[in-house]
């Protein structure tokens, strides 16, 4: 259980960073809607506020500069031009870095930090100091900011906590202590509202304080002290001087507090461990309380934040639920089987009910699966940053256009897609998109465009990365493949085959090793990652027009369609996605080749046969080829093989049970499932069965080579 | 039945003069036992699903209320002959590192309560495996009962497989 407040803070940071990125992307797209600007400002401000509470000074300092510039934009003192937007985008990337450094440890790129701060400072004029925010008065030394030599001012503060404030664990004492750090403080208790003992209610808050503070700090610092009790108290702060400055600061503050208020709730139970006070009120019984105007009504805050209320749940709980639903489905098929075995004349009523049960179970399953499903939006937003960084590193300009961001995919898929997508996008910028001058010379827009789209396609998710660059340089790819000994010198390959050479291990076209790609571990890693998710990846390319990578993924990792087969008296499941066709073989279709190789002839084509039982070590290697059933499968390389099994029983949805922790990696087996009779069945991985089967492997290479020569 | 016997895990009970309970069972004709607190349940043998390429002492996997658990043949694990599993055999489900694991035994005999001081050290023998897997022996009804060191028995094959 993640209980610590700090974890909550970082979780929120993640959301805020996403919100910020989203906002900036909209702004980059030319929409300078004040609401969007505000949203970004609020996100940065909240990060800063939280960071201050945890004493994350680097983060606070940077967020502060960032926020200040944004505030200028907000008040229309700064114009959002391309240069500034680029700077802000880079800053947002850096802010994300700082957050992860704060969370995971590690070093901050100080140089980069300084460059960005300098960049931000260029936009800051004299007014900066007026708007200095101390993030919190509590956290000790937080921001080393240059403060103007302001004259000392006296603030008259009236502070009347509502009873809700005590429910959140805030203590007036600590607030006063924080205030007294700003300057000499005089505290006068106002107990005029205190009723007699007989009329006193335990949970009510009757006390108020009149405070007189003399300080050189701006009013914002004073306000900041009360940041976390905003909305939980009646507060008025009046200063004796400088009315004009105050008005400006107040305007900024009100806007700022408009959002910090809704964050106050999760952050409140922080540094102060409130001693249990007799006045502590149950939070669950909010009463309409009269409020002076200084206190913002709480009710209108949550609505401002997001479109829909959400619930944050431990992932483990959801997984447990998914597991239980899987059991329910298995249990249903067991029950159905048992009932069918009963010797009862009329089963119609029972069967009708059973059908209803089945539909309900499916509904529940779909519902539970959709809990795990998440839109790809956050992933895509992160990708925008990858493209930015990659373009900066290669002196190219490219922008990422995303489509179908709301397509929902299983959370695990999203997590594990991040690396392959990063790789493909970097490659697209590094190898695909041409230099701006070259682009102009051939009549393209100087800025390259990379389109990242996601869509649902008949039970799977399709992710496409399309660039408008130069496309695959086929002669060069082929030459490199020959140089590296990946294909024979005289190989004749089709265009598609050449494109697919990119996925071969150890293939890299980069002339020199660049920062981004070209470390020799390339697209084969991408391919492995996609395959591990049960997906496929394809490339198509048009010279001069660009290339497209298509990734097809299953919607969920928990359930899949499988064909139930029997192999050497064991029931096994083959993923339906890898099967092209099934057929019953007869003797005359089988042709021997060499000492122990066999080929199956299908409509004039010959494909190698791989006996699954042999490959899994379940049958003696010299046993006769069973007159069985063949599953024609296609491997990633496009080569076809026939898997020989004893029989096919059924085609059904199976719940995937991982074998991790049960036993190690078994060649040929991807996972397990539980069948209707309660038995466990292995889910096979055709690709690794073929790899494990030596005869098939040799045939495969031979076939590929002969094919290559023949075509 | 001595119900007052202490049912607590760990070394404490060995130190205290309380009796501890062991479940004894036979594997390939020899008597073995496990502390009762290590055992989650005992089930009748039912055919398991074979794991391809598994070592001889890994019989396969079994469905235990929705969880896939591996089943080890204790006899083969101890270097004795493989058990011909049948309906009469039992699977002792134990938890190792909080993960359920099934152990195939010939049959379960009884629950024996003994004082810690009755546990004797394993005498030095040639077989290295035996020394690892047996953490002590008890004399009970004139027979020798071997106390199994569960951690040694299970962690080794698991590493071997992965």
TrEMBL record, chain A:
Catalytic activity, EC: 2.7.13.3
The UniProt GO MF terms for this protein read: ATP binding; phosphorelay sensor kinase activity
- The modified positions for Phosphohistidine read 45
Biological role stated in the UniProt entry: Involved in the transmission of sensory signals from the chemoreceptors to the flagellar motors. CheA is autophosphorylated; it can transfer its phosphate group to either CheB or CheY.
Keyword Zinc in annotation:
no
The residues covered by the Histidine kinase domain are: 344-557
Source organism, top-level taxon: Bacteria
By what name is this protein known? Answer: Chemotaxis protein CheA
Provide the residue span(s) of the region labelled Disordered.
261-311
Q: Which Pfam families match?
A: CheW, H-kinase_dim, HATPase_c, Hpt
Automatic annotation (TrEMBL), chain B:
Q: Which InterPro entries match?
A: CheW, CheW-like_dom_sf, CheW-lke_dom
State the SMART domains in the record.
Answer: CheW
Q: Where is the CheW-like domain?
A: 19-159
Among the Pfam families in the record, one is: CheW
UniProt superkingdom: Bacteria
Q: Which PROSITE patterns match?
A: CHEW
State any GO CC term. cytosol
Against SUPFAM superfamilies, the record matches this protein to:
CheW-like (SSF50341)
Q: Which GO terms describe its biological process?
A: chemotaxis; signal transduction
By what name is this protein known? Chemotaxis protein CheW
Its source organism is Tritonibacter horizontis
Give the taxonomic lineage as stored in the record: Bacteria, Pseudomonadati, Pseudomonadota, Alphaproteobacteria, Rhodobacterales
């Amino acid at each position: 259980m993640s209980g610590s407040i700090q974890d909550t803070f970082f979780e929120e940071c993640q959301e805020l960073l996403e919100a910020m990125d989203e906002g900036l992307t909209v702004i980059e797209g030319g929409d300078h809607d004040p609401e969007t600007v505000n949203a970004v400002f609020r996100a940065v401000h909240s990060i800063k506020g939280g960071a201050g509470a945890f004493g994350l000074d680097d983060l606070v300092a940077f967020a502060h500069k960032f926020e200040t510039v944004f505030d200028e934009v907000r008040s229309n003192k700064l114009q959002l031009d391309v240069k500034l937007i680029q700077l802000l985008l880079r800053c947002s990337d850096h802010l994300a870095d700082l957050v992860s450094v704060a969370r995971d440890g590690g070093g901050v790129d100080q140089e980069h930090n300084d460059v960005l701060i300098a960049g931000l400072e260029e936009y800051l004029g004299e007014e900066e100091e007026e708007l200095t925010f101390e993030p919190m008065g509590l956290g000790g030394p937080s921001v080393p900011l240059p403060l103007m030599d302001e004259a000392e001012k006296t603030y008259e503060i009236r502070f009347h906590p509502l009873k809700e404030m005590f429910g959140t664990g805030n203590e007036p004492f600590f607030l006063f202590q924080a205030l007294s750090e700003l300057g000499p403080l005089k505290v006068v208790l106002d107990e005029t509202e205190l009723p007699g003992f007989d009329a006193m209610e335990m949970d009510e808050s009757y006390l108020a304080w009149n405070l007189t503070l003399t300080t050189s700090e701006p009013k914002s610092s004073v306000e900041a002290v009360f940041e976390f009790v905003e909305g939980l108290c009646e507060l008025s702060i009046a200063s004796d001087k400088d009315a004009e400055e105050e008005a400006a600061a107040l305007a900024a503050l009100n806007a700022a507090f408009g959002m910090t208020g809704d964050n106050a709730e999760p952050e409140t139970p922080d540094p102060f461990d409130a001693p249990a006070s007799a006045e502590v009120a149950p939070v669950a019984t909010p009463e309409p309380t009269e409020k002076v105007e200084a206190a913002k009504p709480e009710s209108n805050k949550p609505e401002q934040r997001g479109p829909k209320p959400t619930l944050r749940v431990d992932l483990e709980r959801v997984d447990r639920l998914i597991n239980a639903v899987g059991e329910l489905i298995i249990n249903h098929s067991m029950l159905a089987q048992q009932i069918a075995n009963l010797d009862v004349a009329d089963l119609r009523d029972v069967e009708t009910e059973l059908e209803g049960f089945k539909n309900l179970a499916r509904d529940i399953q779909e519902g539970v699966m959709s809990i795990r499903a998440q839109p790809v939006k956050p992933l895509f937003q992160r990708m925008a940053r990858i493209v930015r960084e990659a373009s900066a590193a290669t002196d190219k300009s490219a922008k990422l256009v995303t489509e179908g961001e709301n397509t929902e995919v299983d959370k695990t898929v999203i997590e594990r897609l991040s690396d392959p997508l990063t790789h493909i996008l970097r490659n697209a910028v590094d190898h695909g998109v041409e230099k701006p001058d070259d682009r102009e010379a051939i009549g393209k827009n100087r800025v390259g465009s990379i389109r990242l789209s996601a869509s649902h396609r008949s039970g799977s998710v399709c992710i496409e990365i399309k660039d408008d660059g130069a496309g695959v340089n086929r002669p060069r790819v082929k030459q490199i493949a020959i140089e590296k000994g990946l294909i024979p010198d005289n190989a004749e390959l089709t265009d598609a085959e050449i494109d697919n050479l990119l996925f071969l291990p150890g293939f890299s076209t980069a002339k020199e090793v660049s920062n981004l790609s070209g470390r020799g571990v390339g697209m084969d890693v991408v391919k492995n990652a996609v395959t591990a998710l049960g997906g496929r990846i394809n490339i198509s390319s048009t010279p001069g027009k660009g290339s497209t990578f298509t990734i097809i993924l299953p919607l969920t990792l928990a359930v899949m369609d499988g064909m139930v087969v029997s192999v050497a008296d064991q029931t096994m499941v083959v993923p339906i996605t890898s099967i092209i066709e099934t057929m019953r073989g007869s003797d005359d279709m089988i042709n021997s080749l060499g000492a122990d190789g066999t080929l199956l002839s299908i409509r004039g084509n010959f494909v190698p046969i791989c006996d699954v039982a042999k490959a899994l070590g379940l049958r003696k290697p010299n046993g006769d080829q069973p007159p069985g059933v063949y599953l024609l499968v296609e491997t990633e390389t496009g080569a076809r093989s026939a898997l020989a099994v004893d029989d096919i029983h059924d085609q059904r949805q199976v719940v995937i049970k991982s074998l991790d922790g049960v036993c190690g990696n078994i060649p040929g087996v991807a996972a397990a499932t539980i069948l209707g009779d309660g038995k466990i069945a292995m889910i096979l991985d055709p690709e690794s069965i073929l790899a494990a089967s030596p005869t098939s492997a040799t045939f495969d290479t031979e076939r590929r080579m002969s094919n290559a020569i023949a075509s | 039945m001595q119900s007052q016997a202490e049912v607590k895990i760990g070394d404490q009970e060995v130190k205290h003069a309380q009796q501890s309970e062991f479940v004894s069972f036979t594997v390939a004709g020899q008597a073995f036992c496990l502390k009762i607190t290590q055992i989650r349940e005992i089930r009748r043998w039912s055919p398991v699903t074979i794991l391809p390429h598994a070592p001889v002492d890994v019989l396969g996997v079994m469905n235990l209320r929705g969880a896939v658990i591996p089943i080890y043949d204790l006899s083969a694990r101890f270097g004795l002959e493989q058990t011909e599993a049948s309906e009469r055999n039992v699977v002792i489900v134990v938890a190792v590192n909080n993960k359920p694991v099934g152990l195939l035994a010939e049959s379960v005999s009884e629950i024996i309560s003994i004082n810690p001081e009755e546990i004797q050290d394993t005498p030095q023998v040639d077989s290295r495996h035996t020394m690892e897997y047996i953490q002590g022996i008890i004399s009970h009804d004139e027979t020798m009962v071997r106390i199994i060191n569960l951690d040694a028995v299970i962690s080794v094959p698991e590493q071997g497989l992965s």
